[in-house]
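Section 4.2 – Deliverable D4.2 (structural model, holo form)

The reporting period included a commitment to supply a predicted holo structure for the target in complex with guanosine-5'-diphosphate. Inputs used:
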Amino acid sequence: ANTLTVGELAEKLGKDASEIIKKLMALGVMATKNQDLDDDTIELICSDFGIEVEKEEEVDETDLNHYIEADLEEQLIERPPVVTIMGHVDHGKTTLLDSIRHTKVTAGEAGGITQHIGAYQIKSNGKPITFLDTPGHAAFTSMRSRGAQVTDIAILVVAADDGVMPQTVEAINHAKAADVPIIIAVNKMDKEGANPDRVMQELTEYELIPEDWGGNTIFVQLSALQGEGIDDLLEMILLVAEVEELKANPEGRAVGTVIEAELDKGRGSVASLLVQNGTLRVGDPIVVGNTFGRVRAMVNDLGRRVKKVGPSTPVEITGLNEVPQAGDRFVVFEDEKKARQIGEARQQKQIEVRRGDQSKVSLEDLFEQI
Ligand code: GDP
Ligand code: MG
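Output (structure tokens):
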């Protein structure tokens, strides 16, 4: 931080040193002309004189957010929605994800072996939609705890023969906390005992009221198992996406979030990323959480090698020095040296934090032993 003496400050402000000293006295500070003043005191005095000081913001070079530029409005274009499927256990989340994927992978692509990379993209009426296939709750909790938001729309699956259950409520709370629009998928409509009215009735308690009843929540009845109602659901997703006006800048710096990551025996660190802005390319120097490297290869959700991917697209990359964590942010750098420098600095910081935690724990342990 910078310091100025009383005399220097007086000169800068075009005042007499005695005036500054008077102001300081009023603040309860006895000072001489050669006294150093700290930033806060300088600011106080300036504001007393009606002068606003622009504080030089301290930049944290290791903070990845520091590299995310504001996008120019005219460069923004529509991007696909990123959808998370949530709901109580056994209400049909996995079945629905499988059903959507299988009915929508086009004939030409069907031969490709679908690859599990934590998310996939389909097309409905020519429009892409990205689905996260990590369990919705985990995606919300682990990612949101790290400040990452990847979901644009939440699908809440409720089995029509079971109704609202504890994890249904949990899912509602997550989506509401994240301020994400919710579409209700009333599932298992093929089952005897399916009672969609009951589901609607129960959900009114959570301010999820169907349009027919004067609310604005979209309900879609379906059978994930039989593939009934899937098209309606996709149509509604695109409708909500349009209202949300989801945009990104493919020309911007590539940034996004880790969906999942692991150490692969043959390939080393493998990370599934969701590109949220910009375009990610093979060869890009990259910092991912506290790891870094150069994008060596990219594989999409159909198991195909790709050279570049744009916003809202999931992709699996290799080339990182270590394994990042789900929810970590990534940022691409133009210059590999810079990426390395930032990555190493972040790693160093992490080590220090860990050390700090350890000493704290051992201190507590010590007290416990007494
Ligand atoms: P998850 O725990 O929410 O992922 O639920 P699953 O997708 O694993 O489904 C739990 C069980 O419900 C499985 O036996 C599914 O076959 C079954 N199931 C899922 N959707 C439907 C459906 O639409 N109709 C019927 N009859 N069964 C379904
Ligand atoms: Mg499941």
